[in-house]
Amino acid sequence: MCIPSYERSSSLEACLKSIRAQTFQNFEILINKEEGPLAKLRNKLAQDAKGEYLVFIDDDVICSPGWLAAIVKTFEDRPGCAGVSGPAFINQEFRRNRDIFSYKFFKSLYDFWFCGKRRNLPGHITVSGAWTTGACDKTCSYEGEVDFLEACNMAYRADIFRKFGGFDESYQGVGDWSEPDLAFWIKRAGYELWFARDAGLEHRPSQSGAFKKRKKQSVIRLENYERFSRRWITPCWQHELYKLFLKIYYALASH
User: What is the pTM of this model?
Assistant: First the structure.
């Protein structure tokens, strides 16, 4: 289990407490408390890991007791599955700390303009290049294939993760879009990524640690998206509108 953690001691302790309560207990925990680009820190953790599966979570999540067992079972039941994700519910108390969820008006525009009929699905990238947020809703009951794994709740087969070189370290800062980028490379090679409804956790976004840096990285975050979209998104008017939306949103979020 790979956990990057920067100046969030109380959140990390709550996270570790939930991990110790897992029904599946055959795991190791690796924690990196360094400051630096998230993609690089995650790769460093993966390099030191010895397990068959690499499970990446944030330090501000609370894992349900059967979360890890559901991940392992999915891998065992689906030999062609390279990665597993699950719900990452954010309750109302913490939504104000989580990017677009803290701006209800922008969130409603986001869902209407860019996600359309897929708005309630988890793990999908739409034609506009936007990602769907269904995994964050308590009512999420989806089970099936996805385009990418939730950034705070993603597990890969270690051999496949290393085969593709891990996260692309050209994605700087807090690593926005490095997660779907890796997922797209893996999916293009014919592997399956699966969303398991029982592999759920609660995300409690913290305003400490990396959060403060996230607010100051609007330019870097936009550059990360540009890198991702050049590789994977077919140009269209919806995509141009989404890029404009991101420019405005990141600028507002930085204040």
Answer: 0.93
